[in-house]
Amino acid sequence: MESITSQQYVVVELGTEKHALSISEIYEIIKIQKITQVPNNNPFLEGVTNLRGKIVPIVNLRKRFGLDDTQLPKNSRIVIVRHKDEMIGIIVDGVSQVTRFSDIQPSTDIVSGIDGQYFNGIGRSEEGLISILNIERILTWTEVRERA
Amino acid sequence: MRSELMGAFLDEVEEQLQLLEMNILQLEQEGESEQVIQSIFRTAHTLKGSSATMGFEQMKDLTHEMENVLDQIRRHRLPVSQDLVNVLFECLDMLGVLKTEIERTGTTHTNTDRIAAKLRALAQYAGGESAPPGAPAASAAFDGTPGSGAFVSDSGVRQAIGETRGRQEERNADAPMPQNRDAASLGSDGAAPGTSQGPGPAEPSARRIECRVLLADGCEMKSARAHVIYQTLSGIARVLSTMPPMDDDMLQQGNREIIFVVETDLGLDELEALLLKEIDVEDVELRCGGENVLEQEQAAESRSQPGAPLEELVRQALVRNGLAPNEADRHGSARPEFAGYEPSVQASSAQDSEGHNVPGRESGKHEFEKDEYAKREPVRQDSARGTDAGTGRKEAETQRKTVQTIRVDVERLDNLMNLVGELVIDQTRIVQLSSMLRDVYHADEAFEDLEQISNHIARVISELQESVMKTRMLPIDRLFSRFPRMVRDLSQELGKEIELVLDGKETELDRTVIEEISDPLIHLVRNSIDHGIESREERLKLGKPAKGMVRLSAMHQENHVVITVEDDGRGIWPDRIKASAVAKGLITEAAAESMSDREAIQLIFSPGFSTAQTVSDVSGRGVGMDIVRTHIEKLNGLIDVETKPGQGTKFTIKLPLTLAIVNGLLIKLGQFTYALPMSSVVEIVRIPQEDIQSVKGRPVVQIREQVMPLVWIHDHFRIPRVKRPNRNVFVVVVGIAERRLGLVVDELIGNQDIVVKSIGSYVGKVEGVSGATILGDGSVALILDVVGLMKLVSIADVTSMEDAVFAADEQKAADGQGVFGNGSQH
Questions:
Q1: ipTM given for this complex
Q2: For the whole model, what pTM was predicted?
């Protein structure tokens, strides 16, 4: 438990909700920049962008969670994470702070109307309860394999 | 550290093997030549040395046996025959196998006994001159018949060695047989490479001085010291041979004695003084070795003559019955303790024990004759010229002066290329930014400076890019050099006489391209030989020269490399291709009727066409041609075929120079920018909208004589089609191989060098997109892949008969398995 409490998390905003990502998973956070669409079946893949000469795929967390994504809030950020040796950007509505959790509970089946499998658990902090994102699950698009 | 060493070792082996192959081929073609044999010998020796250092016993042993045989050839005791060349090739292949094993597993486990036995038999045959050609022992070993001595178990050999060693010592003390002595000298490690003149009996060697240099016990880096001494000696005399040979690791295991055999007009005293001046030299002994050596040799030979044949026969009998190891074996492994001591001084070493001060010391002083020197000079030069890369010391020196090269890890070059790619991108951005800023700050002086700097950077970067690209370039000879051997093997196998012509070997292209193109080329050449070139009889009947010709050529053409594979064989018969395609259900008979000859020939590139049966039935061409095409298209290349029935076939491959940076045409579809590799752009036309017609529900346009299907990529990429204000549309005609497609684009931006980047495995394969690049404004543009586009399009709708083949093609690709064929293409 000690390791959990010592770990830092970045709190991101998505709609009215707050989610957390382990800081160890984050490579960097950048502002929204031009994204090039890729003709691909993945519904939440926003496209690719240029991160200092590297082509980085960008996924939209709103789309991933099936939320309305018509307008990007101006505080939107791209959180770059490492996934299987690749850098992948995740668009979120905003990044608010870095926090620690005093306790982490397993997540329920449904968290704020979103499938519980996308979360590692619920963290308790001074700001209240924040769900912790499971990057692996969020990025994995199983439909790709099923359809192919 | 270890792996670095290993890497260097493997590199060297690879290089040496290539050299060996080249030389053996030369040996076969040009017959016995002093230079070639020397070169092969040296190569084998280098291999032996390095494999021994790395502890790869099998490789060492094999090269050792090889050396023995080569030495016999060198001494004109063994004629160069087809059999011999075959054995050498076999040996070469085995070395290749061993090398691969070392590469993969770090050790060797393939059994080399068989080939070693063959080599041994050869060496032995040459050694035992009394035995008639095809002597039982030799031929038995050749067949690999059990009991031929080749299959004596290891322990058996060792035991036998123990016995014979005793016997041999006896014999040595008594009267050494000539062949025995020879075998011994070449068996020992010291069969000096770089010795262009061995102590051959025919050559008087009276002018030589033998310098025995003893290094101080405490001398560190003895090998390096030895090299220094060698250098010194080379400055004042001609060093004929050294013992041990000049290798990097020549002095190991506490050995601190080196023998230099030199030719010089310096007096012995002078020489001695010079040598003693060298650091770490403890003692120097000089002897004018020449005449004595010669005398001894002659004496030994004459004395041993009568006894030799009988004893040899007995021994052969023993070998045959597996009771004794054969000659080469005995010397090969029984005498390592003599290593580094023997050959050129063998006979005279007997004197050593009696006293150093030999008569020659005085008499040899002034015996050197100028004309003798002059006579020999050309010979020596010849042998120096005829040898290859870095094996002999002399050659290495000459080479160092002419070509200065270093080995660089490919990864570093790739990294460098990536960095240059970044620079290219940034530079285009700077240019774009400065043009934007011009509007605002055009009056500012600082801005002028900025522009100048920007221009300069642009120039430097483009030069840098070119240089880095050049460093990655290799002459295509790397690839071409594989063919002589392959053609030789194939022509032997098929009993066809084939002349291989290689043109433009020096043409350079990116190493990745070379790697990728190798398989398709091999395939094409194989096809030409296998199916293109007729049998000798057939050719003669047709009035063609008996010898078939296969020509490989490479040349630069603008930003491309054009490689052609040409033969003067039977060509491809369109009618037969059609018939075969119909028989396979690839096309209908009606379609075949309406098909032009050219179209028919293109059928060989369709996957279903190539099956094993066609090889014998029809022209045979087209086996695995689809694979060839796929490979080439993957490289953004084009392949075309020209053929004249009865006269030959010519395949033309057009490839980009490099894969990392390509010239791209930037276009816009809707608001998005895409890049098309220039290599697949055939032409750009502007056509009035009303010229777009519909054939069987598909939009087509007629450009000159050709009817071209038109495609809006928009539909496939989910981009809304843009309604154009004017009546014309831009059509970019793209082509891969023989297929053409017209792409309707909304805007043409221009062409520029683009850096090809992968879009990564997360996005995965996107049909119609081969990668991405970064534009001047920092945004990402996808690079369209014409092959993929054609797939996309043909899946969408297939109507015309022509496309049936095409569709089958695509479906097969999609299914990942053959639709018509049985997957026999390779």
A1: 0.86
A2: 0.48
